[in-house]
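Quick one:
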Amino acid sequence: MRFRGLVCDGHHIQTFIKVLQSFAKFSETFLIRLSENELQLLNDSPQTLSPFVVKCSLNREEYFEEYSFRGVTSDDNVICLRLRSEGISQVLASFLSHIKCLKLRLSKGSMGLANDCLLCIAVNYPTHSDSDRQVCHQIKIDVIRSEEWNDICGQDLHSFDLSLYLPDYRVISTTTERLNDLCHYINVRAKRVDTKALLVLSVENDSIVVKSKFNGLDLNTDEDIDINPEINDNLVSVRVNARKMSLLFSTLKHLKPTAIISNIIDKNRIYFQFFHNSVKFGAFLPNIDI
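Output:
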């Protein structure tokens, strides 16, 4: 088992830091899955009762100048780790803004046992001399079985009743926040209208009914997804926890998503995809029957 990665591009360093900061806010612990081609992150929802399942992938070729990897075994050529959010948050808070490069490395802990590992995060800062100043942080981690990752992330990401692009992030985030102040649940309804989509977000309590309608939204026509042909122009709906939906949008605020896709399975769940440059976050919210 071996991993070593080097990130030197300033933009990629800041994006990587923001991704780690996001996952540190989602739950008390989160998971990292290392493979030959990518680094994936997943919030540890079953263990910490996090309100949603969030996943993010960082491509090896795009983010890392150097990437050395060997999995746990040849048959199970991945490495799955559990990290404590508090430790990551403390390390990230100590970073200065002018990082020259960021290095990641797995090393054995003091006991030398198979599951006793450390994640070493080293940052290099430029100086006025020819040499750089390096600061190294060591974080205790747990190596877990890949089955634990699969248990959390084992959801179908390709089959939906309707898939559409949401309005601008600031608009949908503000709308969700205001609806959360009125009711515990948000009804998400959508339908195909010719070549576009209609989205309605609504809440209802003993006093009022509030609806926000968004017309003329683009449909997601990605060939990688499978849209249920039986839905046609019928309305699909999901009722979700308002606080959880608002928390999801507010937590990703610092990433400034450039696009958001909403994938809906009628009366089952909604799967949001947040895009920021080459980074993609995926988050599930289940339907709530009341």
